[in-house]
Amino acid sequence: MEGKQQARLELLIANAYIKMQAYDLAKPLLESLLASNEADTAKQWLNYLKAL
Question: Does the pTM exceed 0.85?
């Protein structure tokens, strides 16, 4: 799978984890996305998790 598509898929999975309140599963995925094309969105979600 292409890098951009892989990052997008991981972001969608992290989003699903957040909706299921499985924050401990979402956080590592989001942290791994910080070096991808989805970094801005990952940062926003990580900030959301910190605020909880």
Answer: yes
